Structures are given as C-alpha cells and as structure tokens.
Amino acid sequence: MSSGPNSASRPETTGEQDYTVGENDGVIIVDHGSRRQESNLMLNDFATMFRSRTGYRIVEPAHMELAEPTIKEAFGKCVQQGASRIIVSPYFLSPGRHWKQDIPSLAAEASKEHSNVAYIVTAPLGLHELMVDIMNDRIKYCLKHVAGDADECTVCAGTGKCHIYS
Questions:
Q1: How far apart are the C-alpha atoms of 100 and 57, rounded to whole Å?
Q2: pLDDT in tens, 101-155
Q3: Which residue segment(s) compose the domain that 139 sits in?
Q4: Is 151 helix (H, G, I), strand (E, B) or coil?
Q5: Strands 58-63 and 85-90: what pairing?
Q6: Are residues 76 and 46 both part of a single domain?
Q7: Mind giving me the DSSP string for 16-74?
Q8: Is the peptide bond prior to 90 cis by the omega test (within 30 degrees of 0)?
Q9: Residue 9 belongs to some domain of the structure
Q10: How many whole angstroms separate alpha carbon 98 and alpha carbon 127?
Q11: Does the predicted model carry a pTM greater than 0.85?
Q12: Residue 152 and residue 114 in one domain
C-alpha cells in the first residue's frame, strides 16, 4: 500500500483502518493565537508552506483563541472544500493543557455542525529529532546575522530584537 499524502490505495481487508492522509482529508494546523498580528500571519505562511511541501489538498490555519480563523471556522472551510475527515494538528511543542483539553473541546464543538465528518486531534510537535536540526539552524543563522553576515530572518525582521546584549 502506498503511504503518500494523496495515496489512492485503500486497505483490502474488511474493517482495516486507513492511516494515510487522503484526498478528502482536511488538515487544520492550530496555534495558540496572538494579539500580535504578525504572529498570526506566520501561521498562514506555515499552512501555505505545509500544503505546498506535502501535497495535502485541504490545509487550513486556525487559532485556538485571540484571533481568527477559529477551529470552528477552519473546520467549516475544510468541509466546504470536500473534507470527509479532519486532522487537527496542534502547532505546539509540548502536550500541555491546550492539547489535552482545550483543542479537543473546540474540535468537538466544531464537529457538531458536521456530524458526518470524523476528526482526530494529533499529538503536538514534542520531542522529534528534527527539532534539534531546526533549533541548531536558527541559532547558526542568528549568530551569522549579528556578525553582519546575513539579513534579519523573517521572525525578527523589524523588531530590533536581533542583536547581542551585553
């Protein structure tokens, strides 16, 4: 069986579950939400990047609180695009209260309007060996910037935060 995100292959055994992301799956990437608009827009950029790099057809950003779109709004957008299963993926590092209680509660509430659509809340990013590479890459880039060998990254651009304090 093929395991890619757009796999057309389905289980042959009756009752066997399909654990791949398929054409009619919607992915909602959820962050906390912020009063700072630049932070909220970064999730939009990540969702666009995720869609283009993974090939998942239906990907929507959502904020748990403080900003829109909400999980409920993203759920509805996924269904409007043809999703028959929703995968809610927290853009969080640790499995704290938001992952354990808040996001599942908000997803359950959103699903009430779409009773024929199954959903799952996945684990947060957590401990993954690629996180080490990401952090190391960020550290090296920031040190390069403060040495004058690179422009500010998109995270720090215009904040005045990217310098050595002494």
A1: 27
A2: 999 999 999 999 999 999 999 999 999 899 999 999 999 999 999 999 988 887 8
A3: 128-166
A4: coil
A5: unpaired
A6: yes
A7: ----S--TTEEEEEEE---SSHHHHHHHHHHHHHHHHHH--SEEEEEESSSSSSBHHHH
A8: no
A9: no
A10: 17
A11: no
A12: no
